[in-house]
Amino acid sequence: MAEWLQSDASSSVLLIVAAALVLALAVTLVLWLRAARRLRRSDRDWTSAERTRIDLELSLAEQTGRLGIVRELQDVAVHNVSRLITQAEGARYTAESDPSSAARVVGAIVESGREAVGDMRRVLTVAREGESVSSRQPGLQSARDLFRVMRDAGLTIVFDESGERYELKPGAELAIFRILQGALANALKHGGTGTEAKVSFSWTRDGLQLLVDDDGIRAKARRAGLDSDAINRDTAYTIDDDLHALTSNFSGAGLTQMKQRAELYGGVFQARTVPGVGFSVSVIFPALRFHNGVHSVNLAR
């Protein structure tokens, strides 16, 4: 009887322990899910904030350039108006003594007036273009400004372009720009300052390959003050590391958005770690030139 009671008590203890373990696992799972959800939300917020910051930097750069043009044109216009006033004063005094000379001066005044009006119109044209640019989505024409902004933030960017560039639809240009922007933002976020990003555009007859390779892993070793030999030892890798890099799938709000943008225009997106070096983002658009965002069709045929 005593043995039976002892066995029953042991079973109860085991059940209590098992229930406690299950409860602990459940609590841990809930906490982990909440933490993962917060991390994803934080990643999305960071990506959105970084994109907004870069867009504002690009807009500021474009508007600053246009403001400089407006100032130059305005100086020319003011000079022409001043000359116009001087000629008008001369014509007024000349009209009393030499009417024929006054007529010639009036002709010169007309020409000067036309020049001044032309300069004023140029000022207005540049100002209006600036208003339209501020509301226009960025495209490949903004890539140089993007590079400057990212360099100011701490990246070292090397750019290479091969093949003959051709005009793209605005939506395709925006998609490529956003992918490039996201890849460089990730390089800065995960690689840190001093990371070198190599950007290449390879244009084919109908397509484009965009490649962004960074050395964020080696940049971390450089920031630690290691010499070249120590960097090589610190960033050494094995065949297993290579295999893991080739088979791993990377996710995140930024990478997901890049992949979705690429697929809209028939692109094949790939993101992977380069062991001992950093990270690589590659997008191949096989038929971008004639792609309308739904399927590859040469609409010119």
Question: Explain this structure to me?
Answer:
This protein has 301 residues and is α+β, with helices and mostly antiparallel strands. Helix content is 67%, strand content 12%. The chain contains eight helices and five strands, in the order αααβαββααααββ. The protein has helices spanning 2-97, 99-134, 143-153, 170-191, 216-223, 228-234, 239-247, 253-264, and strands at residues 156-162, 196-203, 208-214, 268-274, 278-285. It has a five-stranded mixed beta sheet with strand order 1-2-3-5-4, with helices on both faces. α4 links the parallel β1 (156-162) and β2. α1 (2-97) crosses α3 and α3 packs parallel to α4. It is elongated, with a radius of gyration of 33 Å. The relative contact order is 0.09. Mean pLDDT is 76; it is low at 294-299.
Itemize the secondary structure elements and their pairings.
Layout: H1 2-97, H2 99-134, H3 143-153, E1 156-162, H4 170-191, E2 196-203, E3 208-214, H5 216-223, H6 228-234, H7 239-247, H8 253-264, E4 268-274, E5 278-285
Parallel strand pairs: 1-2
Antiparallel strand pairs: 2-3, 3-5, 4-5
Helix pairs in contact: 1-2, 1-3, 1-4, 3-4, 4-5, 4-8
